[in-house]
Amino acid sequence: MSELVGTPEQVISDPAGVVIDDLHKSFGDVEVLKGIDMTVSPGQVVCLIGASGSGKSTLLRCVNRLEDPDAGRITVGDFEATDLDVNLDAMRRQIGMVFQQFNLFPHLSVLENCTITPRRVLKQSRDEAEREALHQLDLVGLKHLADRRPAQLSGGQQQRVAIARALTMKPSLMLFDEPTSALDPETVGEVLAIMRDLARAGMTMIVVTHEMGFAREVADRVVFLDKGVVVEEGTAKQVIGAPTQPRTQDFLRRVL
Ligand code: ADP
Ligand code: MG
């Protein structure tokens, strides 16, 4: 297949920063996040790594308030995400999220998957929404599959559609929760290439991933989470290349 993947033609003009301050979250008696501090500057890429169950997804989900934190403060750009009176709809419009499972609408075409939210939420006309969607699909190399149904695409292609779909909303922050974990190995690279382009375009990104090669190449900072605590953070070179904490060393021995 000779799809052109990776045309870094877009520039993210207004990336948001994220500040997380002493974030706590429990489910029942189990404290899953035990006082997380994390800062992501506008345009930065932070890779969040850690074993299964360490709280990575919960942390991401608190950022767009899919989970309500018990304590602590989160700001996303100009939004006080943890304020009771925050405009959640407006905040979430600025935050794109990509999951392990692509969550495309199976009964809609690729193009319709990318236009439905801009039309409904941003009240764009069909023409306007289709123009932007085709532009985003072009950037991920999939414009020629706009009329297909998701099931007719490979996993990697579906995930690229999911990214294009998120970008049609012009987010200022992108959250990725293990975006390549469900993919066949041969399609992982094409998704990582799109994410690399997006990082180069200046998007603020928080990426939960086990792809240490990607983290080394793209991440400005790597944060290692264990049992709801940030154990170690720094550049990829520091955290992945020369971890100082035994728990980080253990984890990396298992994934590398
Ligand atoms: P990770 O993404 O690092 O694998 P998660 O954030 O998904 O970790 O989960 C952290 C812990 O919180 C796990 O023990 C998980 O079982 C628990 N957990 C996550 N979501 C819920 C929930 N909605 N209700 C109860 N427990 C949950
Ligand atoms: Mg998870």
The low-pLDDT segments are none
Q: Assign an overall shape.
A: globular
- Major β-sheet strand ordering: 6-7-8-3-9-10
**Which structural class is indicated by helix and strand composition?**
alpha/beta
Name the beta content range.
15-25%
Radius of gyration: 18 Å
Q: Give the number of DSSP strands.
A: 10
Bound molecules: adenosine-5'-diphosphate, magnesium ion
Largest sheet: 6 strands, mixed
Tell me, rounded to a whole number, the average pLDDT: 95
- Helical content band: 25-40%
Defining key terms:
256 residues; alpha/beta; 6-stranded mixed sheet; 4-stranded antiparallel sheet; 9 helices; 10 strands; 36% helix; globular; binds adenosine-5'-diphosphate; binds magnesium ion
What would you say this structure looks like, in words?
It is a single chain. With 256 residues, this protein is of the alpha/beta class. The chain is 36% helix and 23% strand. It is built from nine helices and ten strands. The strands form two sheets. It has a six-stranded mixed beta sheet, with helices on both faces. It has a four-stranded antiparallel beta sheet with strand order 2-1-4-5, with helices on one face. α3 packs parallel to α5 (155-167). It is globular. 45% of the residues are buried. The mean pLDDT is 95. Bound molecules: adenosine-5'-diphosphate (ADP) and magnesium ion. GO terms for molecular function: ATP binding; ATP hydrolysis activity; ATPase-coupled polar amino acid-transporter activity. It is a peripheral membrane protein. Keywords: Amino-acid transport, ATP-binding, Cell membrane, Membrane, Nucleotide-binding, Transport. Residues 18-252 form the ABC transporter domain. It catalyses: a polar amino acid(out) + ATP + H2O = a polar amino acid(in) + ADP + phosphate + H(+).
